[in-house]
Amino acid sequence: MIWLLTGGAGYIGAHVARALVAAGDDVVVVDDLSSGLTERIASLPLVRADLTEGPDPLAAAMTAHGVTGVVHLAAKKSVAESVQRPVHYYEQNVGGTAALLRAAATAGVRHVLYSSTAAVYGESTEELVDETSPTAPSNPYGESKLAAEWLIRSAAAAHGMSWASLRYFNVAGAADSVLADRGRSNLLPIVLRAADREEPVEIFGGDWPTPDGTCIRDYVHVEDLADAHVAMAESLRTGSVRSGVFNVGRGDGVSVLQMLDAVHRVTGRPVRRRVVDRRPGDPARVVADPSAIAAAIGWRAKRDVDDIVGSAWKAYRPGT
Ligand SMILES: NC(=O)c1ccc[n+]([C@@H]2O[C@H](COP(=O)([O-])OP(=O)(O)OC[C@H]3O[C@@H](n4cnc5c(N)ncnc54)[C@H](O)[C@@H]3O)[C@@H](O)[C@H]2O)c1
């Protein structure tokens, strides 16, 4: 099967591309390279296009390559930037999705697999969030990703496509140094850089209502996440899944201090820390109930936190 993969030059997209190819599928990447890197997808066809420029180049690429499914990861993802530039985030994440769906309908695409996020749940108070938990995003990033979920659901129904939205929790780790997360907003890359440079890490709040006072998140290895895409893509193709929203996490909460301990354990380097004020909009705890995706397609995370940290450290310092 031939998939058009948006955002395939990005951190997660490149892992998904590699996994789809390893599973025997063909992949055409669409990416504007705003944060993506061509070295991550050196052997794949790349259509360099900004989704927000409209559906025409996308429909042309779909038709030219015989695409029958779309895997949609291209998005802007900085929570802080989304608060500063909400219109830009809606234009990019909702407008870009609209252009892609218009192109998909024109080109007769049958399946849409979308990259959503735990940010759609906002400040949940539940021990584990499942797909029926309330969606109340606490920033424009999460709002734009949720609006795109709704748009996909409606457009897919109107055009007879099957679809799935995967709500990723905190994605971390790497297959190798080429595919590593080079962003500056996720906790693990920040902590590894700090450990390497012996600089202190800022912890946003030490008085949260959690056992050690720091925020708790659910970290999932990017290669497990890529495997979830392969399994879901196959289920859409065969028709065993027609539609749905699925959490992709490990179902295991890890606090910021526990992550710092894991980095110390795996790298042998203690991580200095400095507690600063809480950030507005940060929930105390967001941990997935991943049972729906296990029931639907049999996917479960195989890698634990030490695997995540170890792979990210190896990718950060290829010699280690
Ligand atoms: N990293 C995480 O922990 C996480 C968690 C939940 C959801 N997500 C979602 O996963 C997806 C990928 O995230 P990532 O961490 O790989 O980010 P990334 O920035 O590495 O990848 C995004 C890719 O999309 C491309 N892109 C952005 N806007 C585009 C546009 N308008 N047209 C064409 N290409 C465009 C970028 O160049 C980049 O290659 C995003 O949709 C994000 O919302 C990420």
Total beta strands: 14
Distinct ligand kinds: nicotinamide-adenine-dinucleotide
N-to-C order of helices and strands: EHEEHEHHEHEEHEEEHEEHEEHH
Provide the CATH architecture of the largest domain. 3-Layer(aba) Sandwich
Helix content: 40-55%
| Overall 3D form | globular
Adjacency order of strands in the biggest sheet: 3-2-1-4-5-6-11
**CA radius of gyration:** 19 Å
Largest sheet report = 7 strands, parallel
What is the structural class? alpha/beta
Can you tell me the CATH superfamily of the largest domain?
A: NAD(P)-binding Rossmann-like Domain
Topology readout:
Elements: E1 2-6, H1 11-22, E2 26-31, E3 46-48, H2 56-65, E4 69-72, H3 79-84, H4 86-107, E5 111-117, H5 140-159, E6 162-168, E7 170-172, H6 187-197, E8 201-204, E9 216-217, E10 219-221, H7 222-238, E11 245-248, E12 254-255, H8 256-267, E13 273-276, E14 285-286, H9 291-297, H10 305-316
Parallel strand pairs: 1-2, 1-4, 2-3, 4-5, 5-6, 6-11, 7-10, 8-13, 9-14
Antiparallel strand pairs: 9-12
Helix pairs in contact: 1-7, 2-4, 4-5, 6-8, 6-10, 8-10
The structure holds nicotinamide-adenine-dinucleotide.
Task: Please explain how this structure is put together.
- There is one protein chain.
- It contains 10 helices and 14 strands.
- The chain has a 7-stranded parallel β-sheet with strand order 3-2-1-4-5-6-11, with helices on both faces. A 3-stranded mixed β-sheet has the order 12-9-14.
- The two termini are 37 Å apart.
- Helix 2 runs parallel beside helix 4 and helix 6 crosses helix 10.
- The model has no long low-confidence stretch (mean pLDDT 96).
- By secondary structure, the chain is an alpha/beta fold.
- The site of nicotinamide-adenine-dinucleotide has 30 residues, from helix 1, helix 4, strand 5 and strand 7.
- Nicotinamide-adenine-dinucleotide (NAD) binds next to helix 1, helix 4, strand 5 and strand 7.
